[in-house]
Amino acid sequence: MLPFSSKLRRTALATIALLGTACGSQGLSQAWQLDRLRILAVRAEPAEPRPGDDVSFEALYYVPDGGNIALSLWFACLPQAADDFGCTMDSSVDSSALSDLAGIDPETMTPKEQAALYQQLIDAGLIGAEPFMAPTWTAPADALDGLNDTARLEGVSAVVNITAIPDSSTGADDTELAYKRLPISEASTPNHNPDITGFTIDGEPVKPGGQIDRIWGQDVQIEPILADDAIETYLYRTADGTDEQRQEEPYVTWYAEDGSFDQPYGLYPYLTATWSPPLPQSAQAAPPFISDEVREITLIAVARDRRGGMGWAKLTVSLASPDLPW
Amino acid sequence: MILSLLQSLPVTVSLLIGAPAFAQAADEPTEALPPITVSPALLEFVEAVYPPAAAAEGVTATVTLLINIDATGAVTGVTVLDEPARQGTEPGQPTTWGFGQAAVAAARQWHFSPAEDANGPTPVKIEFAYEFKAPPSSEPAPGPPASAAPIQITGVLIEMGTRRPLSGFPIVATDSTGHTLEQDTDGDGRFALSGLTPGSVHLASTYPGYARVEKTVLAPPPPAEGEALTPTKLKLWLRNLSYRDDEIVGVYKLPVQDVTKRTVSTAEVRAIPGTFGDPVRVIQDLPGAARAPLGTGLLVIRGSNPEDSGVYIDGIRVPLIYHLGAYSSVINADLVDSVDYLPGGYGTQYGRSTGGVIDIKTKHTFPERTKVNWNTDLLDTSVLVEGQAGKKHGLGYAVAGRRSYIDAFIPLFTGDTGFTIKPRWYDYQLKLDALNLPKGHLSTFLFGFQDVLRVSTPSDYAQGTDQDTQGDIGTKYGTHRIMVEWDRPIGDHLALRMVPSLGVDTAQFNLGESFDLTQLQSLLELRTELKWTPVPAMDLTAGVDFIGGWYKFQTQFPFDPTTFANYDPLAEREPFTQSGTGWAWGPDLYLEMNIRPLADSKRLLLQPGLRADMMNIVGQVDIKGLDPRFMLRAELFDGGLFKLGTGLYNQPPQPFESWRPGGGVDVRFENAWSNEIGWEQQFTPGLSADVSVYYKFLQRQIVPNPDLSSIDDQFFVNQGIGRAYGIETIIRQAPIGRFFGWVSYTLSRSVRNDYPSSPRIFDGPGLLGPFDSADGWYSYDFDQTHILVAVAGYKLPRDWEISGKMQYVTGNPTTPYSGGIYDIDQDIYQPYSTGAYNTERLPAFFETDLRIDKLFTFKRWQLEVFLDLLNVLRGTNPEFTQYNYDYTQTAYIRGLPFIPSPGFQADFEF
Asked: Is pTM, for the whole model, over 0.80?
């Protein structure tokens, strides 16, 4: 009648199994490795709109070798209109404009042609089609209809879909699909995006987009500097109607073009990570790794506040051999 | 050993060994010599009271008894086949001297070691000639041959390793003049020599099956007048040429009363590589049992979920049989007498399971001398002490304990990194058995175990990105039971068996400060059976299988689990706690009848049965069910047996499936309609084959409520259905002589449909819902089409033994994924499926294991050293598919590589 422990035991075994499997990646690519087109983050502004507010979006793409995306399509909808893939296109609308988009150079279009194209895209349900039309959306005024006062404070999460198509001239053919939730609410303390204002590299401050020089084989200890207002205090009304003051617990995800991180995440307040650079292509097996090769590697930190807000910053590490006295 | 025991008795008895000696009783079932591999040895003898009238007149007699011995060695019935009549009696006087009555009274108090056939311990009947040789007198029992001359040399003959005295062994003494004396050792293995010429004396003892022993000692000269002679004292140690050869005798074998019941002897268990001497793990090498991933002990029997199979110890159900990691069972393997494996078609005495049954029987025999068994490996150490106590050796006892220490070694590898993993377990057992009860059998068994696992990471280490999955992970669970087993015949036609048990089960799990589960239940279990045998052709068993007790639980989650179906990672979380306490019970009743309608009773056995299932969790669930079952076994010709079984098997919901805050849960028993038909063929006394076809309909399977929307809704519903069917075959050579082994093959299929009224259909590539399938049906997670296992062992001279095992199993079903869609808020990819749930399979599993074993025998102890070579052919066996972060790359998590695993076990007797 009561053989309850078998479930718990399986939990324990699963834990061991997970720990065991976590120990080895078996050569599989890691999430922090930037080696193909990726959508790393999407930032909505405002981060938590009220019904009827206009919202603009910005995506953080990574395209190898400094390239650009050929096309990025954006859709948005309320959750009741979404399916497994997120928002769907209304099949009754004319979507012919989408079929040739990747082959069009917007700079060759006249303003009138551009306007006509934008209208076609909007009619097809798109809220953005980069590089033609920056993604913007007006949160539906009826988004919270039918909710009680407490639920309106918490709001609903609209869905935003992004489909990024790589430039075929780069040889890449992987289309990246992603989706994000956009909270729409009447919260008294709406969310804001967290900004990363810089880095502390081995104890020294570095501005976003900055560059540091390091020698091959030299680990880098790196910590993102969050803006003073990045960790917000906000009000949450509990199910029993009590207003509770809560504080955000952001976390940072690390990405790099090469090398490796000791851990891919940093949870507040432990945001520091250690990045180990790669070795030069031709070098001796032990330090100092002497090579004529010089390489610049991009590192990216993305901060998420768990309420939908995001911010990011990049850093370039230039790797070279040490200056030797001889 | 049997002979030596018997020869030590104060009266002469004879056990008729060998086929011709087993004369059949006229009205008892006849049967050709069955494949009995180990005869029952008389361990506990109680002398019969000599009838006073016969003693007064100096009458001697021999009484022939037919003794029923059950699978534990207990005497369950005695009848007189022949006894001498009293001549010249007057009307009103007894027609016999009373020898038969006296012999029956004595024999009912005896205890034997269990007889074994190819399937392990088995009930038998033996014919026994009890000889009343001479009327009792006040004279002491004769010892070694008396001699007028003073004793010059005394000694005792002892078997090496076991320290058992060897009685009836010849001692030949040759003095310096060439004069030779020969004497047999007495019941205590002693001898006393006299009449030898003082000086050097050569002693020798030769006995079949033993290495010859020789020794030269000094025979003392005659003492000075008025002084006593001080004899030379010595011990002679004889080495048994093989401690592993069992005698083979013929006895009557009683019919098995389940459609398919497979029993593995402990000798086979020890010899099979990769089982680590664990009798339960061997089940996974038998037909019907699926291969468990990564060597874990999950019991997947005939396509059932692991929790659908019941594990019993001496008839009392226990929640677990393995410690953490499934490397050790929770009961000392040397305390296990046998393991019954019933994959299906079992009788009504077992219930609350739709899968198979594993019933572990603990020992009922104990060595006369205290024996210590020490077993050590890298993970833990276990010790077993067993023996007999009391003036008349009336109490058998066994005490065992195990403690792991792997948690002490792990920090040596992790250092001060802040990462720690501490698995820890212990178990204990205490068994007391009353050996000299005038009737029946009484024993007490106390056992328990506890497992703890703590996993800690540094505080700055992120365990994923979720704030509620951070912190230490801990789990702790344990079980403690005390049970009493009491069997008692009531008259000639009734037998009562009672097994009351008290116990406590505890379980805890926590992850950081967010997830917490604590559970406690105290249990009373009672199994009571009354068996009525009005005529030999029929018996009826009525039983109660009660389980009940008090429970308490508390759970804490970081959010309301009922919202998980519409999970929004951006939503604010509120801790969710639930707790409950109450009473629950299930007083199941069962009836089972064995009917043998033919004159030759072994030819046909019909077994109708009915079990009433009840489960009441006060205020939550109150359900009832009926399990009608029927089984037939018909021996159509000698050695060929047709079997058939059909029946309903009800299983109560798991505790978490039968509770909700407001009470009144509408959940019923899961059930399975199980059908089986098969053939057993005995080719030779050792060689047999068994083919079974089974088909199981799974109904009312409990699945998550698809309409769950609030905490007040019912969490689970009985909507699922399923099918499991297949063919099982085994060809088996019993461990007779030097070779044993089997080839087992199972062809099987097990499928489920969780929501037949509104099936979840896979309609093309996309994000896969839970169990989305092509037509509502999907393959069960451990559905393994082909399971082929070959096991073989061979006993070499000088106590060497080699054995091997080969396993080929179809890979488990998997779901194909190809790419993923990035969830930006959670920073994870949701897998994008290109096929329905479980529509692909892992590559097949292939593993070959070898084992080499050597038993060393010293004077006072024995040492078994073995080397298991696991996966010698280095099969690269995928157990799970591992994906990279975006599901575009795959790799396999593979099974064990080639592992040489040495070990040893030591036995001491004091």
From this structure: no
- B30 contact A CB<8A: no
What was the ipTM of the complex prediction?
A: 0.90
Q: Provide the 3-class DSSP secondary structure of residue B603.
A: helix
Strands (E), B558-686: 576-595, 604-617, 621-637, 640-651, 670-682
Report which residue type is found at B805.
K
Q: Which 3 state secondary structure label does DSSP give A231?
A: coil
Return the structure tokens found at B296.
């874990």
Q: Which residues of A touch B547 (CB under 8 A)?
A: 1-2
What percent of chain B has a predicted confidence (pLDDT) above 90?
37
For residues B401 and B351, the answer to whether their CB atoms sit within 8 Å is no
B238–chain A Cβ distance below 8 A for any pair: no
Alpha helices in chain A (DSSP H): 5-22, 96-99, 111-123, 149-154
Tell me, yes or no, if B513 comes closer than 8 A to chain A by beta carbon: no
Which residue segments constitute the domains of chain A, with CATH numbers given?
30-190 (2.60.40.10), 192-326 (2.60.40.10)
To the nearest whole Å, the CA of A288 is away from the closest chain B CA by: 27
Closest approach of A321 to chain B, Cα-based (Å): 31
DSSP β-bridge partners for residue A324:
none
Domains annotated for chain B, with CATH where assigned, are: 2-132 (3.30.2420.10), 151-238 (2.60.40.1120), 253-357 (2.170.130.10), 363-549 (no CATH), 584-910 (2.40.170.20)
What single string gives the DSSP state of each residue in A20-70? HHHT--TTPPPTTB--S-EEEEEEEESSSPPTT-EEEEEEEEE-GGG--EE
The 10s digit of each residue's pLDDT in A160-179 is 999 998 876 665 567 899 99
Mean pLDDT of chain B: 83
pLDDT band at B724 (very low <50, low <70, confident <90, very high): very high
Interface touch B509/A85, C-beta < 8 Å: no
Helix (H) or strand (E) holding A165: strand A156-166
Smallest CA–CA distance from B830 into chain A, residue = A178
